[in-house]
Design brief:
Elements lengths: L2 H23 L26 E7 L3 H4 L6 E2 L2 E2 L2 E2 L3 E2 L2 E2 L5 E4 L3 E4 L5 H14 L7 E6 L3 E6 L5 E4 L7 H7 L7 E12 L2 E7 L19 E6 L1 H11 L3 H22 L1
Parallel strand pairs: 10-14
Antiparallel strand pairs: 1-6, 1-9, 2-5, 3-4, 7-8, 10-11, 12-13, 12-14
Subcellular location: Cell outer membrane
InterPro entries: Poly_export, Poly_export_N, SLBB_dom
GO cellular component, one term: pore complex
Length: 261
């Protein structure tokens, strides 16, 4: 084979590989440069079992609101105290909380605003506080990101809204070995564990019920073939692996000698 043809063939292979590589790593490839899409519906996180809720009641008369507020406490970490935090209401396995004076309240499936209005209504109708101001917040909203990302871990969410893309951003984005077409969201709801896979290269992720993450969701990024192959080689040091590699190298060397004769 002429060396010039061999050189052209090698350049062509490198060029085709370089051109195809971005298609494997780019996100949202089917979206135009400038595109406006209407968000069909807003997102509000709902209260689940095991959620920890901070509920604060205020009134013009502060003494009337005192019985409905949990105390502020400081948690000791080693020899230091962190900032005071409100003791929250834990949603039990029946989806209830035990609220002062009002007693048991079923809160599972409600949004923060729905629970806020419910408490305000009960306080007003019970003639306990005339014009109550109620604030409800999540104290243990967290999601976990594992797999082929730069910084896997569990992340606490200060608000009550985080998207799949935002969670991956917090984890430092996918590594070059992460599969953009197999990003799983593991979710537990209604007594079932659901796993949904997403292709980050497609805008279809915006329509996924897991695009907006919920409390305790787990995001898992699968490794690609190169990473899994590397793992298998590293975990298998048997002589057969090295003999196979040596055989392949010998075959390549023989082929090159034949070409250059």
């Amino acid at each position: 084979m002429n060396l010039r043809y061999l050189y052209v063939l090698i350049c062509l292979i490198v060029f085709l590989t370089a051109c195809s590589a971005p298609k494997e790593v780019l996100y949202l490839q089917d979206i135009a440069t400038i595109k406006q899409e209407k968000i069909e519906k807003g997102y509000e996180v709902k209260i689940h079992k095991d959620d920890l809720l901070a509920i604060i009641v205020n009134s013009k008369d502060e003494e009337l609101a005192l019985p409905f507020n949990m105390p502020m406490v400081s948690y000791q970490i080693g020899s230091n105290y962190n900032q005071p935090r409100i003791v929250g209401y834990l949603v039990d396995q029946n989806g209830d909380i035990d609220f002062p004076v009002l007693g048991k309240m079923h809160v599972q499936g409600l949004t923060r605003m729905q629970l806020t209005e419910l408490i305000k209504k009960k306080l007003s109708e019970g003639d306990l506080i005339k014009d109550p101001i109620v604030t409800v917040q999540f104290l243990n909203f967290k999601v976990s990101v594992i797999g082929e990302v730069s910084r896997p871990g569990t992340f606490e969410i200060s608000g009550d809204r985080i998207t799949l893309l935002e969670a991956l951003s917090r984890a430092g984005d996918l590594t070059i070995h992460g599969r953009r077409d197999r990003v799983a969201v593991i979710r537990e709801e209604n007594g079932e564990r659901i796993i949904r896979y997403h292709d980050l290269r497609s805008s279809d992720i915006f329509n996924s019920p897991c695009y907006y993450l919920q409390q305790n969701d787990i995001v898992y990024v699968e490794p690609n073939k190169a990473r899994t192959g590397q793992s298998r080689v590293n975990s298998n040091n048997s002589a057969s692996v090295w003999l196979s590699t040596a055989s392949v190298l010998a075959s390549i060397a023989s082929l090159l000698i034949t070409i250059f004769k």
